Fold:
Amino acid sequence: MPARLGLSALNLILPGLGLLRLGNRRGALLAFVAPFALGALLTLGFGYLPITGYGVAVTALVLIIVLLGAMYIVPIVLTWRRSRLRGPAHWWSRWYALTLIAVVVLGLCARMPLLMHQFYRPFYTPSDGMAPTLGRGDKFVVDMRRREPPGRGDVVVFQATDGVRVNRVAAIAGDRIAMRAGRPIVNGVAVAQHVERKVMVDDFDGQYPATILTERLPGERSSHRLFDIDASPFDDMREVTVPPGHVFVLGDNRDRSADSRVPLEQLGVGMVPTTSIIGRAMYIHWSSNRAKIGDRLDR
Structure:
């Protein structure tokens, strides 16, 4: 009995290791491949089967948990059953070979997230600078594959001097942009804004009134919403020209966002080099506000 338990427990170190110890090379190989297959499934799911609502998010989470559980439980059960009929030992089922195989496979598994993140990667919003589009703590998926320069209206994740930021592109290289009373003026044309409704917004100090506006930047595929809270020092900005290889970004929560309007020395981001852009936001896959789960950010 102790020997059978020990063999089964090997699968807790690496699924399939117990089967390999018993000489079941085919079963062990399938178990070794399972984590990589699950990683590929998750990567493809992020990109081609996006979360569309709370129910889908919960279903996907349950499915992932079930698959992870099966990845361990199935080899454990098979090892327990086959341990009564243990065959002759092969060189690849001895302890020195098991140790080497476990180190190699676990090392490859550790690198798998890095490979997955070359395609799609989940991020979260640490602040309210992009509210109401992205609230504090919202989790969203970013497309890491697109390397062409972003367009106006794209929500991009980029590396700033103080960490990773997420903002909306308001102007691209060669554009002239200014701010007048919180309204962007791109290439001499004021961006249209329309009042949607008044709301109360939560903050660290309690609640404060805000106006939800809709806005559509030149060339943007669809309009987006933004918060207008009160007058701020950066509601007005003289016209500047976006240099080559850069973009000008704004937060949707204009009065609470340290974006391209704010110089680097004042903890803003200034003009953002396109080489600093990590990827483009696709959709929200989890939020404390269930109604936002599945909202597209790339339309």
About this structure: Residues 180 and 236 are 5 Å apart (CA to CA). The radius of gyration is 26 Å. The chain has a mean pLDDT of 89.
